[in-house]
Amino acid sequence: MADGIINVYKEKGFTSHDVVAKMRGILKQKKIGHTGTLDPDAEGVLPVCLGKATKLCDMLTDKTKTYEAVLLLGMETDTQDTTGTVLNTYPVEAGEEEVKAAVMSFLGHYDQVPPMYSALKVDGKKLYELARAGKEVERKARPVEILDIRIQRMDLPRVTITVSCSKGTYIRTLCYDIGKKLGCGGCMESLLRTRVSDFVLEDSLTLTQIEQLRDDGSLGEHILAVDKVFSSYPQLVMKEEFDKLVHNGNPFMRNQAEGEYQISDGPVRVYDSTMEFIGVYEPNEEGSLLKPQKVFLGGSR
């Protein structure tokens, strides 16, 4: 069974779940998960976790993401993108400078109302299920952060923007909000995810390419080992006589492991004496005891 993360290029027409299903067929293994949903018409970077790395799915979902989107001004739809039903059209009277000011005004923190066509749940029901049934419910605004926003091209009524944002940000809704601020409405025409944490578009592989690499026997070269995700953390290696502690997922004392480490270093990568990656541990306040935060050791022991 393969363990690690592979940077998949999700093509248009596939859901994120479709990609996982196809990866299970390609690799002949069930333990596979994705790290954050992309709409079927969106494309781009979708890190897929294999084997032990599925424990990373929630951690990567929380990471910063970067998108390139085309905002179409002058149109509002029920889905906030061009796949939906057109609700209103308006003339676009704003000039380039006014559009630029409106786009840049969303830099930083803002409260975003999630769209009805989303997988968020209200009273146990997904919003998109309610929307398809013709129901609209009140949604609470959620704090999001636009870390960076840039205009790449402007050919009104279309504006191509690059956005880096926090977890939970809907780019469709950002497009809608920009259009609303300009008074002419707006929706998203296309979306390309170019980065999730350190996974970038240039390194992503289509499902066809992954199949070819599998057949060539070189796919392993494109699977990122689990511990590489934590390469910025200091490393501790257990003394052989204390391996059993981490094999059983127990805390251990600082002097039971080798390696340079100060309490200010925070979380640490832990390996047993044979250099098998165990997981991420965090110190107590004194720094003398380290407790497991995320353990990736397989069940072979």
Automatic annotation (TrEMBL):
For this UniProt record, the keywords arranged alphabetically read as follows: Isomerase, tRNA processing
* EC identifiers of the protein: 5.4.99.25
Source domain of life is Bacteria
Looking at the record, the residues that make up the Pseudouridine synthase II N-terminal domain are 24-171
One GO biological process this protein is involved in is: tRNA pseudouridine synthesis
Catalyzes what? uridine(55) in tRNA = pseudouridine(55) in tRNA
SUPFAM superfamilies associated with the record:
Pseudouridine synthase
Q: Which InterPro entries match?
A: PsdUridine_synth_cat_dom_sf, PsdUridine_synth_N, tRNA_psdUridine_synth_TruB, TruB_C
Residue span, tRNA pseudouridylate synthase B C-terminal domain: 172-229
Any one Pfam family here would be: TruB_C_2
GO terms assigned for molecular function: RNA binding; tRNA pseudouridine(55) synthase activity
Q: Where in the sequence is the active site?
A: D39 (nucleophile)
Q: What's this protein's function?
A: Responsible for synthesis of pseudouridine from uracil-55 in the psi GC loop of transfer RNAs.
NCBIfam families from the xrefs? TruB
As for family, the record states: Belongs to the pseudouridine synthase TruB family. Type 1 subfamily.
Name used for this protein in its record: tRNA pseudouridine synthase B
Q: Which organism is it from?
A: Lacrimispora xylanisolvens
